[in-house]
Design brief:
By secondary structure, the protein is of the alpha/beta class. 35% of the residues lie in helices and 25% in strands. A hairpin with a 2-residue loop joins strand 20 and strand 21. The relative contact order is 0.13.
Length: 560
């Protein structure tokens, strides 16, 4: 039974009222229920956060509100009342008058939500024109202003770029700009900050909350980050296996969780619990050759031409570090700071403009052919985005065994056995082998991506935001798994993350990057307790989970 706490709650008429919502998906194996009898209210001017494990039904519930379910999804029962409308029964023509104008949606994944052949500014301008908020002549300038409001740096330059030219965080901010362009009454934000570093996350969430304060905009926030929910939401809804198991004022649930599932989620949240290093630090052997050594690395990119002439961005600027076997080096910093570019350079997935990269004592800066292939065998990458990194035509079994086939490791039976073993280690059932990526949730896809990266038992794994798409309980399992593998095999991790609470638990050394340069390096215990650089202190101050919201009043914005 759902635990509803109404003591002291505002009795304002809900802006969004969901009653008895049930949703199912048709699959090759039959009909799968995803949401079962959900009741949920969103009050005007408030943030309501829906939390739960991957596959709990939270995103399906959010998408059912505007009937943007996958083609095989069906609303089986229930009402979704928004003002005088029951959105569950509206015609498509009627829904189009609500979507965008009165309800804005921030999708989870910017890669599949932005048009790859249109510039960012054009996509924002299109929304403004469709809803009559700008003319064809004024729309470009208005779009730049909206991008600026959404926290995109150098908005005029970014408006002229295509999605593939932006970092993951920048693309997500472009989606947020599209959602807020028409100043809707309700914003449905499905993991809106999962790709963002903590400082930009704070700016974006501050801005969304400013909307609730200024114009009464309500937010239905779907998130796996309980720290964000704790900081930002007045009301918390906890879902498990398609059902709401606990709901009420956020402060009450955090202080006294009644359901065992809620208690388990809170215990797994890195930003709400005391740090506990998963892998004990061990000093490398004397005179040991570093597994990876980067010396004075530089990478420059050309930007779109402006009135001032050609522009060049120095994304990586004189970066040097060493990484030994059995160690984890974390690169942290804001989106666009050069973290992921540095990782791609270290793996030789892109060419450096200057500097040197040594792998196990061998200079691989210009490696080609057989030397580059050997590096691929010994170094693997866990991508930030599981939607773009998994081939939609492959079964999950084929996805995981692809590296084994490419390097001719084992036979069909042994590869399949290895795939089953890896799925078990990343907490997925063996039946997942027969499914396709499109049939999995975002968190489940990321676990598959991690299993694939581990298939060849590599010496180095570059982890580019490997747990950003995971709910906290699975995140804890994956971090424990990475630590266990490191202890067992001596694998080294280059760990890229915007989540400093996660970094504190997994890293032996932390390098803080800003504008392409490393500004501070040290063990996490020193960096987190005695940061020397002002930028490091700013990052630490932005870690979510440090404040509890009022259950009835909106939280004040910290930005103007």
């Amino acid at each position: 039974m759902t635990d509803e706490r109404e003591n002291g709650e505002d009795v304002t008429t809900p802006l969004l009222e969901i009653r008895g919502l049930s949703v199912s998906y048709r699959t090759r194996g039959g009909t799968v229920p995803a949401v079962r009898g959900v009741d949920l209210d969103v009050l005007p001017g408030q943030v309501t956060a829906v939390v739960g494990e991957s596959g709990s039904g939270k995103s399906t519930t959010a998408h059912a509100v505007t009937r943007l379910l996958a083609a095989n999804g069906t609303i089986d029962a229930g009402t979704v009342r928004f003002g005088r409308h029951d959105l569950a029964t509206l015609s498509e023509a009627e829904l189009r008058t609500v979507r965008g104008a009165r309800i804005g949606l921030v999708p989870q994944d910017p890669t599949v939500s932005l048009n790859p052949v249109k510039r960012i500014g054009e996509q924002v301008a299109e929304v403004l024109r469709i809803h009559g908020l700008a003319t064809r002549r004024s729309a470009p300038a208005e779009a730049v202003a909206v991008l600026d409001r959404a926290g995109l740096p150098d908005a005029a330059v970014r408006a002229r770029q295509y999605p593939h030219e932006l970092s993951g965080g920048m693309r997500q901010r472009a989606l947020i700009a599209i959602a807020i362009a028409a100043k809707p009454e309700l914003i449905i934000a499905d993991e809106p900050t999962s790709a963002l570093d903590v400082t930009v996350q704070r700016v974006i969430l501050d801005h969304l909350q400013h909307l609730t304060e200024e114009s009464g905009t309500a937010i239905l926030l779907v998130t796996h980050d309980l720290g964000v929910a704790a900081d930002r939401a007045q009301r918390l809804v906890v879902m498990e296996q398609g059902r709401v198991v606990e709901a009420g004022p956020t402060r009450d649930i955090l202080a006294d969780p009644r359901h065992e599932y809620t208690r388990r989620l809170l215990a797994s949240a890195p930003s709400l619990t005391a740090a506990r290093p998963r892998t004990p630090a061990s000093a490398p052997k004397a005179n040991a050759v570093p597994l990876v050594e980067v010396r004075h690395l530089v990478k420059e990119f050309r930007l779109p031409r402006t009135e001032d002439g050609p522009q060049v961005l120095r994304a990586v600027d004189d970066v040097s570090f060493t990484l030994h076997r059995g160690q984890t080096l974390a690169l942290v910093g804001e989106s666009g700071s050069g973290k992921s570019t540095t990782a791609r350079l270290a793996l030789r997935l892109t060419d450096a403009s200057a500097g040197h990269i040594l792998f196990d004592g061998t200079d691989i800066t210009t490696a080609r052919g057989a030397r580059a292939r050997e590096l691929r065998r010994r170094a693997q990458l866990i991508y930030q985005n599981p939607y773009a990194s998994l081939d939609p035509r492959f079964s999950i079994g084929e996805v995981i065994t692809e590296p084994l086939r490419a390097f001719k490791v084992g036979d069909r039976a042994s590869r399949l056995a290895r795939a089953r073993e890896l799925l078990d280690r990343v907490a997925l059932p063996a039946a997942t082998l027969e499914r396709r990526p499109a049939e999995l949730s975002g968190g489940q896809r990321q676990r598959v991506a991690i299993a694939r990266a581990l298939a060849l038992s590599p010496d180095l794994v570059v982890c580019d935001e490997p747990v950003s798409a995971l709910d906290v309980s699975v995140q804890a399992q994956v971090l424990d798994l990475l630590a266990e593998l490191q202890a067992d095999t001596g694998v080294a991790y280059l760990f890229i993350s915007h989540d400093l609470a996660v970094v504190r638990q997994i890293a032996h050394q932390v390098a803080v990057m800003r504008s392409g340069r490393i500004v501070e390096t040290g063990p996490p215990e020193d960096l987190f307790t005695h940061p020397r650089h002002a930028y490091t202190r700013e990052l630490l101050a932005a870690i979510p989970g440090g404040r509890a919201p009022s259950p009835t009043a909106t939280v004040e914005s910290t930005t103007s």
